[in-house]
Structures are given as C-alpha cells and as structure tokens.
Amino acid sequence: MSASPNPYASPNIPDPQQNPFGATGGYPLATRTQRFVGALVDGLIMTPLTFGAGFVLGIGLVVSGLQPESVPFRVAAAVIGLAIGAGIFLAINGYLLATRGQTVGKYLVKTQIVSEGGGLVPFAPLILKRYVPIWVAGQVPFIGPLFLLVNVLAIFRENHKCIHDDLAGTKVIFIGSPAA
Fold it and tell me: Which domain holds residue 91?
C-alpha cells in the first residue's frame, strides 16, 4: 500500500491539490452523444446572440456606405463578425473555460476539456490552439464550411476526438462519475 500525501484523506475523494473536477484520471472519454448535447446547448445559447449581433453589424456596414455585394463589405463582415462572435463566446464561456475547462453546455452535461495527460489546459493555450484555428478556418470562403464539417465528423474516429482536439492536444471526458 502506498502512502498518501494526506494520511487522513478518504481514498474515494480526489486530492484537493489535484484538479477537483476529476480530470486527473479514472474518468472515461465523453460519449459522442454527450459531446453533441453539450455543443447543441452551446449553439442554442450562441445562435440568437450572434445572429442579432450579425444583423446589427450588417446594418452598420450598410449605413457606413458599403454595398452588401462588395468585397470590402464581405471582408469587414467576416473580420468584425469573427471578433464579435469570439467576444460573445468568451463572455459566456470564458470563466468556465478558464477555471473548469468547460463551456455552459459541457457544464450541463458534465463533460470537461482536459489535456492528453488529464490536467486542465491553461486558458490562453486552450483558446489559441483549440478555438481560434477553427474560427479562422471557418471564415475561408468555400473551404471553411467544408473544414468545419470534417472537424466535427472526425468525432466518429475511435478516439472520439474532433480535429480541434488534435490541434490543441485535448480530449473531452465525462466527469459525472468515475470509471470503475
């Protein structure tokens, strides 16, 4: 029997110096259904907000004199829209991502983003490696939507990981109950 750092700690309770949300081991990968439901919840929260912001942005660009069919309009809409969408996403999910490795959807379905080693990923690398490349790639005309589709369809691989997980070196685990 190995000695625990805290001889008075219950063997069934994770060490509080470790990640208290269960990412240090013994937790199974999130199922495809859990990941889908979490993403669906996030999408249901984000869609009306980003649609409204996009509508206001479009009106603002037209009022500023840009023609909706013009290249400058499309570039401005893509760049400003990306910044606004990222801002909305971070305003809603930033705290949970920074402290728990979760979005609102992941919180509700009890899943969590962790590194391949099982620890929480620091906030800046998480955003810069896992989210920004996908957000930027999604803005590329014609290729972007195809890449986004391939990204999510990659979850049907044996490791249940999307391309954004591969880019960031992350995995999504289910923290509702430890594996037996």
Answer: 32-174
Q: What pLDDT is attached to residue 119? A: 94
Distance CA 170, CA 180 (A): 23
Q: Give the span between the Cα atoms of 70 and 67, in whole angstroms.
A: 5
Higher pLDDT, 100 or 5: 100
Considering the domain boundaries, does residue 114 fall inside one?
Answer: yes
- Tracing tokens 């990981």 back to the chain, one arrives at 161
Indicate the number of domains in the chain: 1
Taking the complete model, does pTM exceed 0.85, yes or no?
no
CA 99 – CA 126 distance, rounded (Å): 12
By percentage, how much of the chain surpasses pLDDT 70? 84
Q: Please give the Cα distance from 23 to 112 (Å, whole number).
A: 8
d(CA 29, CA 8): 30
Would 161 be classed as within a structural domain?
A: yes
User: Among 77, 82, 86, which Cα is nearest to 56's?
Assistant: 77
Tell me the per-residue pLDDT of 10-29, one tens digit each, with 9 for 90 and over.
Answer: 555 444 334 444 444 679 99
